[in-house]
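thoughts on both lines:
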Amino acid sequence: DGRYFVQAKKELEGQDTRLMAMGEEGVPTIEEYLMDHMPEGGVLGFDGRVVNAAKGRKFETMMAEKHATLSVGDDLAGEVWEERPILPAPEVWVLDVKYAGETVAEKLARLRTAMKKEHATVHILSSLDDVAWLFNIRKNSDDGNVLAPAFTLITEDEARLFINSRKFSPELRAYFEENHVAIEKYDAIYDAVAGIRNETVLLEPGKVNFALYKKIDASNRIVEAMNPTSRMKAVKNPVEMENLRKAHLKDGVALTKFLCWMKKNAGKVELTETEAAERLEDYRKAQEGYLGPSFTTISAFGSNAAMCHYHATKEQESPVGTDGFYLVDSGGQYYEGTTDVTRTIAVGHVTDEMKEHFTLVMMGMLRLMNAKFNVDYLARGPLWERGFDFNHGTGHGVGFLSAVHERPNGIRWRIVPERQDSCVLEEGMLTSDEPGLYIEGSHGIRTENLSLCRKAEKNEYGQFMCFENMTFAPIDLDAVDISVMEPSDVRMLNAYHKEVCEKLSPYMTEEENEWLKEATRPIGEDYTWRI
């Protein structure tokens, strides 16, 4: 993934490790590398619990050509991992139907209907976001991961949840009993699958591990398809959609208060990247219903922002300097849903070239946000016209109080099959809109909003679709080069900022509102458009 190459190169300096930048010209795939280096009659070892069945089967076929075998029953890395922490028991709680919008019984009924369409009698489900959605459960978390490690087996009349239940409350156990869900030990899934006979088993090879897949007895017929729950949960129901609006308003208030503070203080007071992230977290904690970050905050100044998923730590970080771009990519988990937003702001002086880069990225985000046709070139177009591009997708699906990256929806011009994020967008799908530009050693820019897919007008030409913007936070006008923009881009920016100001101003202090009014001022009224 291109987002990590710059970061990996920096982190591997001085190590006897060769970076293989996957997908780049001249770099072999893992499969090609194995075929070139595996000796005849050799053995390929891996922990079958952490390689999916689709990949494991591919390795199995490849190794047969080399008369080689697989060793997948041992955790070789675990054997040399000293003082390895044990897998913790999750503290699980129930997401109320006033947030989820659908009961467990209703979801199980929908899933069983989908199973019947596939003529399946048993469904193996092990992807954590699907399990959490199906049973309306989440776990306590301080790192954004609210998904409890679990497996489930679903039949026409049984639902078996395999999970470490050591910290389950009596109320939680009663909840599962009321919904006819049997609780079993986490590792018992392997014996349970091994005991299935003469059934039709529905599973998704890319979402079931190879060790579990190999436990399925030959008497069973296997049906391979995407987990039905994946498409179900991607389409948010009306209750979820309304809750998401509330979550994003809260998040916009927190982020805007932070941006106000940063614009007044960054470059003027001593401030590190982690301290900036901590201040943003404090603003989020002040919002009712906030549960924690949806992922580790990316807080990056200057050249660090060119590493798309850079993570500052107390041991290795940079100060927020006096001249350059500061980028913050962050999100929150709320009872009302998941947020993910990126803003880049100018601190002190930024060059004309940097302003041009910022403006092109902003234009792409706004054009896609206002599109009636969801096509990636709207976001990349301003960059492509000037010979720039970014090496990651333009958008990814976002879950509801779940994973911040969710399939099957996404926005990218180049389909990446293993990501499974190129489906037709449907009403209710929440997707990010995040073009960027990264100049190694200099600066990085990304502007990200989340958009909810909605139905627009329907006429003799068919059903048109559009996006409802969900994210409300100012875009830094100090970094905008209006000469790069088309009149339509200026109108979209002004309209967006007008809505930002209207929605957020009731929640701001008088001092913050003075800043917000200036930060969202309309631009371009007296500008003479260049030919």
Summary: The first strand starts at residue 43 and ends at 45. Confidence is low (pLDDT under 50) at residues 526-531.
